[in-house]
Structures are given as structure tokens and as C-alpha cells.
Amino acid sequence: MESKPPKQEEEKQEPKEEDKGPTVFRRYQAKSGHNEKGERIMNEYVFKQKLGQGGFAEVHAVDRTINVNGTISTATYAMKCMNKKVLKSGANMISEYDKEGNLITMKLWDKVKVEMDIWSKLFNDNIIRLYEITDDFDDDEIYLTTEFAKYGTIAD
């Protein structure tokens, strides 16, 4: 009977830098107002169309125009604008079970922060990409700039 060599455990390696995907840009200043056409703007984004809204957030289609070496290009993104005051209020609590089965209660703001942290690490063609988080401490809103799903939601 032939003996087989002992099975060696596969060594776990950190992903290579090129496999990690691009990082999410974090910005801490939101310059908002209106442009000369009267359109709402936030930093270099121009709000075009409201796509939806919930209890504490609205989602808008936004355009970002950039000039690279004299070539002007415009890209459309989705921007989720969340009201931090509502998220941080004690009235908006969420309960869920942790890994050990204990019921924990947290402010919705804490849950959103965890989800932003997870989302910023995801890079897959099948997941809407998060490009930028803008959280100005002097602004009541936090802005998440994501890939625009031109065909709508899964429910559509």
C-alpha cells in the first residue's frame, strides 16, 4: 500500500495590491449651493434628477464634469444624501443579533458607519461601487457617491 504525503495546509497570503481594487476617496468638506443655471451643486457634482427617497436619505443622479488636458468629459453617478441628525438621534435605533446570538441595540448612525466601512472594501463587478464619502462636520448631511445603475434597481 502506497502512503500519501501528509496534506499541507495552504498558506494564506494577503491579496496583492492590484487585487485589492481602488480605495474609496474620503472628503471632509462639502461645498454646496447652486450654479449659474440654478442647479443644486455639491463640490464638483451637479444634481440632475431625484431617483428616490426614504426616511433619512435621498438618492440623486449627479453629473461630474472634468477637464483632463483640454478634454472635457462628463460622467453620471448616484449620490445618496443622508441626514446625520436623523441618523444620530436616539429615536432611530436598530436592534440586531451579534455573532454570539446576543441582541444589541445601536443608533442607526453606527450601523451606517459599519456598512460604509464594509462597502468601501468591496470591489466586484456585481456590486455597485462606492467611489467617495463626503462627510463635512459642519454639514447636516453625509454624501455617498456611487456607481450609477442606468437600468434601475433590482426591483424595477
Notable features of this structure?
mainly beta; eight-stranded mixed β-sheet; 2 helices; 42% strand; Phosphorylase Kinase, domain 1; 156 residues
Explain what this protein looks like in three dimensions.
The protein is built from two helices and ten strands, in the order ββββββαββαββ. The strands form two sheets. Strands 1-9-10-6-5-4-3-2 form an eight-stranded mixed β-sheet. A two-stranded antiparallel sheet has the order 7-8. The longest helix is centred in the last third of the chain and has 14 residues, at 108-121. The protein is mainly beta. A hairpin with a 5-residue loop joins strand 2 (32-34) and strand 3. 12% of the residues lie in helices and 42% in strands. 10% of the residues are buried. It has a domain at 22-85 and 124-147: Phosphorylase Kinase, domain 1.
Rg estimate, integer Å: 21 Å
Helix content: 10-25%
Uncertain residue segments: 7-15
Can you tell me the CATH architecture of the domain at 22-85 and 124-147? 2-Layer Sandwich
What is the average of the pLDDT values?
83
- The helix count comes to 2
Q: Given the helix and strand composition, which structural class is it?
A: mainly beta
Strand content: 35-45%
CATH top-level class of the domain at 22-85 and 124-147: Alpha Beta
- The total of beta strands comes to 10
Instruction: Write the element-wise H/E pattern from the N-terminal end onward.
Output: EEEEEEHEEHEE
**Spatial sequence of strands, sheet with the most strands:** 1-9-10-6-5-4-3-2
Per the principal axes of the C-alpha atoms, what is the gross shape?
globular
Q: Which superfamily, in CATH terms, is the homologous superfamily of the domain at 22-85 and 124-147?
A: Phosphorylase Kinase, domain 1
CATH topology description of the domain at 22-85 and 124-147: Phosphorylase Kinase, domain 1
Terminal CA distance reads: 62 Å
Largest sheet: 8 strands, mixed
